[in-house]
Each structure stands twice: as structure tokens, then as C-alpha cells.
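re: that complex we talked abt at group meeting.

here r the seqs, copy pasted straight from the sheet so there may be weird spacing, ignore it
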Amino acid sequence: VNAPERILPDIQAQIDHRSMAINRVGVKSMLHPLKVSSATGEIVHTVAHADMYVGLPPDQKGTHMSRFVEILQDFDGAIDHPGMHALMLAMLQRLEARSGWIELRFPYFIRKAAPVSGLSSLLDYHVTMRAQMDRDASDLSFLSGSPSANGFQLTVKVQVPVTSLCPCSKEISDYGAHNQRSHVTITAELSAPVSLEELVGMAEDEASCELYGLLKRQDEKYVTERAYDNPKFVEDLVRDVAGRLDADDRVRAYVVESENFESIHNHSAYALIENHKH
Amino acid sequence: VNAPERILPDIQAQIDHRSMAINRVGVKSMLHPLKVSSATGEIVHTVAHADMYVGLPPDQKGTHMSRFVEILQDFDGAIDHPGMHALMLAMLQRLEARSGWIELRFPYFIRKAAPVSGLSSLLDYHVTMRAQMDRDASDLSFLSGSPSANGFQLTVKVQVPVTSLCPCSKEISDYGAHNQRSHVTITAELSAPVSLEELVGMAEDEASCELYGLLKRQDEKYVTERAYDNPKFVEDLVRDVAGRLDADDRVRAYVVESENFESIHNHSAYALIENHKH
Amino acid sequence: VNAPERILPDIQAQIDHRSMAINRVGVKSMLHPLKVSSATGEIVHTVAHADMYVGLPPDQKGTHMSRFVEILQDFDGAIDHPGMHALMLAMLQRLEARSGWIELRFPYFIRKAAPVSGLSSLLDYHVTMRAQMDRDASDLSFLSGSPSANGFQLTVKVQVPVTSLCPCSKEISDYGAHNQRSHVTITAELSAPVSLEELVGMAEDEASCELYGLLKRQDEKYVTERAYDNPKFVEDLVRDVAGRLDADDRVRAYVVESENFESIHNHSAYALIENHKH
Amino acid sequence: VNAPERILPDIQAQIDHRSMAINRVGVKSMLHPLKVSSATGEIVHTVAHADMYVGLPPDQKGTHMSRFVEILQDFDGAIDHPGMHALMLAMLQRLEARSGWIELRFPYFIRKAAPVSGLSSLLDYHVTMRAQMDRDASDLSFLSGSPSANGFQLTVKVQVPVTSLCPCSKEISDYGAHNQRSHVTITAELSAPVSLEELVGMAEDEASCELYGLLKRQDEKYVTERAYDNPKFVEDLVRDVAGRLDADDRVRAYVVESENFESIHNHSAYALIENHKH
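got the structure back, here u go
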């Protein structure tokens, strides 16, 4: 803190007289390079849009915006369940706040093998990791706490592109069946770590067929026939993925959605199941 | 219903054995021309992205997607509080459903007079109208009911572009102050009709200055000085708009957000207040 | 022009000493309600993003931004070939400019009958109409000229959503074939009016199958089988549409593109043919 | 190449009888992690949308889509002028093509020091690198050629977010001046390497003020006063940046644009200068 800073007035630190708390205040849509931990511990380099907010008490006029930027720029760990917890604690301490919200939105890459040729390629998924923390005023133990306690909550959202093939079209047509790219989206509130790869797998396993970056002709034959053998309505997709999430004890609550970009219409078919298990 | 339809199997109507209800299923992002009622009863022509969903019971395999399209295309009323109610009832009846969700997202236009010259021009606002209905299994009165009863709930969201001018920048600088376009967004669950114009006005009145499509030089002088005389942090914007919504009995619950597209950074400042009044 | 305007200095009208002409200057992405003429003369209400620019001579410091807004707001005709010409002349006169550029981007709706049931529904298309004019310094006849002369040039771009079905997938698979939504985009520089419906038809006729807003089961059977009977690579789509545009004397130059949102990948297949006929 | 591939028919390799060349065909919007070389040789990790196309001769039915994916996935160099050349040669050889087009769109990060406190932070810029190559049928030397010869052309586009402050608003108002975030975009066809940092610097130097990720109070005072001391119309921005590009011999042709997201309107002010120097 140098001389000029000391003499400039700190407007944000003044008293506010409206007696109105603010649920979330901070920086939004800050683009930043990021390292993410894969299921096998490998580092995936990506770029994230970051939102970072804290709760503001009724008597405080404003937050200190530049500190959010410092925290994100100083963070050089990898993003995963403990990484999100560490980032949250750093933010709450630096901003002297009792509650916080961090959301990171980024493309993530998983290496997959084509189903017949075995050729390897990357597929991209849109991921959102959202951490929330609301710690009790009297509880001073949070600094030594683990991510699974002390009011820390992590929600992971993966948007998984898949193939869906329409059962009705297959049944009523003499040949063929319309199929299309669909986005199956899982939003899971976790009580214990679940890797991005596991969540993606739940959606891909239950689709008519999964997607690949690279397919040779024998692979293309396989995925075409696999989708035709495995037709699914948008309703089937969300029900079958919901069944997987119901069976997983690490998932405390979830929303599963599917949006099918219909190849015969210019709008989407859509379904959603939501379940709070407690 | 003609001959070919009768003989093709109806896969969607089959029994489903997973015993899993679907919260929402239907069509998403259907682009459709729409008429909206203004506060003065005038018609504003616009184009909407429409999402229309119903709840699906555990034993039903699929919904009938084409019926959603028919309902929207057959609707030729204007969109407002009773219009959304009418559209909801038409959907629930045609789909034989107990719960429904309709969301319309569209640009809306309001004619404004420039502050000094009085010259008239349109300004555009992004509006979302979302209706939800969940009617009790034993309650058959819903067909004759009014929009304000029987489990019908309307939420209106308006995104209002305004000018915000930074109080800190004004205070610490010898001259000038950074200012920028901001989006103040009000999401209000209504117990009685509130016009789009009223909601927009609440946001514009509390900004550093409101925006206009058309400004002559004398108007530009006015808005420049008005913003400088009226500096607001992102925190001030949400607190002052929240005060307006707190005071309005027709608003049952609300979220107010402000996103300031900072002219000195490449990210936004953001704040949110949410209040469920009951 | 009232008193305050007279006494405020007009900075934009000052002399600029950098001796550098500006190709295009004006307003961009102004959202505005618009009427568009259909092939049958009916009015389609829509909402457009409008860009309006003029060329600025080397010695002029700035243009007058508010005049562009006035011209668009005062225009109450319908958009078509002569409508674009009228709007251009109004802009050039009001801005005292020798060259201009107007681009309108809007969704457009065409009513279509389902292929078997005959049921009627709207389909939406993204349209761009771009007018350019560059009139010779010595030619004063432009005010009385027709749209087809005096340096006026109209380019129409239609993005047409269709179904494409992969010939390779069909050939190598024992059953089924992957298919998907594709965007066929025609950008045509016109020497005589061609309706939006005609341009859309060229793309739809050459696709594996066209799309519809509303399809009953017998229609869904038809479009499924039609696409399977009519497989097309992305290369076939652009070649077959290019053939149609080559044969039309009203089209002076064109670009035809197809982007297939592959149902087996998370990226697109794409092709482009461009032809300047002169 | 294993057994199954050999016996599946190769539809794409068949003869096409429409006698119509295709200008560009390949894959579009493939999301892929990428390394970019900075001016100082450091590696910046980012994620790119990649388009990769080749020209297709009139007699060939289709291209081989999977090869584009293989080339991109196999490329493990860093993206810069020679990197783009290497990627282009790899594509032309593998696809046996005479012409090609590669476009990579990605966020790029530059570390900057705040103007008074000197605090360091990253700022993000949207970059497009586009390589085109069209080699003469008789010229077999291209494989050993340098990037600056043999029909290889590199175009670099940087979108630089800056502050613009309106000279008219400053002049006519008793205090204050409206200012806003603007995007200055330089699209430069290069005859010799120019770093991204140099292009970004040309835009930032000529703005009312440049942006920073992190500013302390003394920095905020500086940028506020700097913008007020340095007002620029959208016309001034493009003229002053064009002057810089005119003076640089490594730039063969350019387009410079500025879009000002006006803080007093809900649309943009925009200007463009284009210059082909030869």
C-alpha cells in the first residue's frame, strides 16, 4: 500500500444507511486461463469465465472489487473439489465475508477411443463448477474444515453432447429414423467428490450413442447401427440418466435435462427431472 | 384425424415401467411472432423464443410434441397477465396435464421522449414472461378460475439497459468519472398485474441515468450531467431498485440484479438482492 | 432546431486534418420492429438488428449519429427490394453522403403445409438484407433512379435450416443412417428482385428433406423416409444449390454454404461455393 | 488401416459428374486446446474454435473429414506465423489438396502492469488467425518454402477492448463526459511476422485509455483522468489506428473497426477503414 492509495478516500468502506443486505456482489464474466484436474490426476488446460461474489452486510456501502481479481490471479492450483474449497476460503478471508459464491464455466476435454478402430481423440464438454458457502457467525472452525463440512456446497454441471434417435420415427417408418445431436445436462450437488469423467459417462452410457471427435469408416458404421438399435425419446434420456443419479450416494440433489436439436424441426424437444434426495 | 394417423402406432402413449415422473417435457426455443399488450393497451409486435412444457406422470412414456406447436400457433391473443393464463389453460387441457410451464423471451419496445428536445424514439428491452401452474388433483375449478388463483403463478423478468457512473471514480479524480452501460434486471413474481412499463420505470428511475434511442446535443448535455450528478455503485443500483419492489404489494417475491459492463475493465461488476416476501 | 442546440458547439462538423476518408461510419446493432413484404405481398412483422453507415470524406471530423436513428424510426414502409432502395436514398440525403451501407438482420416466417396431413405451420429463417450504394460525384440523377441502377446493390442472405442425411453412413451400415439439422446459407447479390420464399425454396428443394414447425405421425413417417431416400453430403448440398443459382439470371453473384451439425461429432461439416458470374 | 476399413466402400472418393469445384470443404467449429507463442516466446495456453478447409476439384465427390481432425490433434507445436504455415502444409499434404483455409479463433492473454501501482494482471483479447494457401499446379517447391512465399497468406485479427470518451459530450457539458467500453478490431494481412502484442498495442495506444484486469484506487484515478484528457470519437479511433497500420511495412492490407457500446444508448457507434496497400 503506497502513499497515493492512503490519501484517496475509500468510498466503498463508508457506512450505508439503507439497512439492506446484498446477497451477492463481486465480479462477473472475468475470462481467465485455468488448470482442471482430470479423474486420473492429469492437468487439462482451459479458459474459464469466472463469477466471484460475496454477501455484503446491511451497513457496508460497497465491496472491494479489485480483491476478487487478485484472488483469482493468485490462485495457481488445479480446479477440482478441494481446489474450489481452497479458492472459496481465500475469497472469504480476503473479503472478510461470511458467505460466498464462485462459478467457473469452461470447456473441458476428455480423450476417448473410437469404438472399432480404437483411434484416440479429444471431445469437448461445457462444464460449470459452482461453489457456495454460508458459514455461521459463531463458527470459527471453518478455516481448518474440509470441503464436505462447514456450509460448503459444490454443484457441478456438465453439458454432454450425444446422439438421440427417435423411437417413434423408427417404428412408423419403413426404413431410417431421424436422429440428431442432443445436449444431456447433469447438474449435481455433491456430498463427496465425483469426477467430471464419471458424470459425463452417466450421460453418454444412456444416450442412443455417444459422440467422438474422430471416427473412421468402420467406426461410423458402428455408431450408426448402435443409435438405430438404441432409440430414445427425450423422456427416456432424462429418466435413464436420473436412474443413475438416484443410485449414487455422493449426489445429494440433481437436475437432469435433455435438449434434442430435432433434425426434422427448427426447435428443440426438451425434458427435465429434478430430485432433492433429503 | 385422418386414416394414416389411425393405423400408425402411438409409441408415446404406451405405458412406461420406470415409475419416474418427469417435471417438465415439451418444446424449447421455438421462434414465433407475437403480440404483446403495452400499459396503454397498444399492441407491440415482436418475435419470441417460446418454451412450453407439461409434467408427465410416471406411467406415461412420452408427451405429444406436435400439440404444443398447435397451441402456440392457434393462440392469437396478446401477451399480458390474462393472456399468459389463457395460453396455460389451453396447454393443460390439450395435453391433459396437471402442471405446466411456459416461458416466452422477446424484445419489447417502449416509446420515450428525449429529456430536453422531447424528440420521441423507441428503446428496446429484453423481457421474459414465465407462467407456471400446478393444480391439485381434486380441484376441478381451475377452468373457470382467474389468473390470480388456482396455482397459477406469473413471473416477469425485464432487462433494462441504463447508465451507471462510479462514485469512487468521481470522488478520487480531479475531473471526469468512468461510466458505462449496465443491465438492471428485475425478476418479479406477481400476485396482481404489473405492466412492463412500470417495471422498466423502477429500474430507470434508480439508475445514474436512463438510456434513449435518439438524443440531440442538448439532450446529450443533459444525460451527461445527470449521470455525473447521480453516481451509483452496482450495490446502490440493486438496493435502490429493491426498495421500490419492497414497497409494491403486487410483487410477491423478486430478484434484482445489476451487471455493469465496466468501461475500465474487460469484466463486469455485479450485484444481486433476492427477497421472498411471505 | 431550438435555442439550446444553436449555442452548443458542433464538434462533429469541424475540419479534420488527418486527410483520411472513413469507409463506413454510423450506428450498429440497433434493435427495431420491422415489416417485411412476403412474396405474395403480405406483411410479416419481425424485429431487426440494423446497421446503418455512410462514407465520410477526409476533411470531416465526424458524422451525425442521431440522424441514422431518425431515418430508421421515420421509415414506415415494408422491407423488400424497393424498400431497401428508399431507405438508402433517405439516408444518403439526410447525411449528405455519397456512399452508404445498410444491413438488416431479422427472423422471417414462412407458412408451410405438412407433407401428408397438409397441416399448416410457420417456419423461421434468419435473413440478412444488405444494401450498398456508391454514387459517382458527377452523377446527380440518382434521386430519380430505380433500385437497379445508379450504383445501388442489394445482397440477400437466407439461412435455411434443413435435414441432411449422410450417404456414406447409409451405404456402409446394415440399417439406419446418421442425419442432422444443417444450415444451408445462400448469399445472393441481385440484379432484379428475388423473393425470400424463392431463395428459401432453392435450399429446401435440394436438401435431404426440408423442416416443418408441425408434423403429425404420417408426416413424420414421410420426412424420415424422404431423407433416407435422398442422402446428401455437405458437398452435394452446396453443389446442388449452386446449380440452381447458376441458372437464375437475376443472381449476379452468390455464395452458398452448408453447415451440418453432425449428430455423430461435436463439430460441423462445412462446404462453400462462391461464384461471381460477370 | 485394418481389415474392416478396406472392405467398406469409399463413397467420398467416387467420381462426381456435376463438374463443379468446391472452394472450401472441411470441418468447422471444432473446439480444441491450443498453445500460442507470445512476443517473448512464452507459451499461452488457450482453447480455440478451429475451421479447416481445402478446395475440392470438380471431379471428386467428397473430402475425407476425419483427416482434418487427425491433423489438428497431431499438431503439438505453438501457434504463430511459422506454426500456421506448418499446419497448412500438413493439411494440404494429408488431404492431397492444392488450396486450403485454416481459421483459429481463441482468447489470448497479455500480462499488463497497472499504470500507477504497477500491479500485474492478465487482460483477455479475442484473436482470429486465418491462413490461406493457393499453390500453383506446376510449382512443386512449396514444401520447402518459407511462410512468406508460395501463395501462403496469413491474416491476424485482434479485438481489443478499450475505453472511449466522447469529445462532444465533454465539450458541451459543464462537467463529466460519457464514456464506455469499445472494441477496436484490427484485421491485418501480414507480409512478415507481427506479434499479437504489437497489434494490441497499436489499438491501446490510440484509445482514450486502455483497460486493465486489476486497478487500485490510484490507478482508477489515473485511468479516469487519462480518458477525460484524451477524448476520441469512433471516427478518431479508426483514423488513428489506421495511421499506425499505414506506417508499418509488414502489413500488406488491413481493416480497422471500432464499435463503441454507447453508455447513453442501447446501440453502438461504429466506424471502419480498410486499406489494401498495393
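couple things i noticed - DSSP finds seven helices and nine strands in chain C. Chain C has a mean pLDDT of 93.
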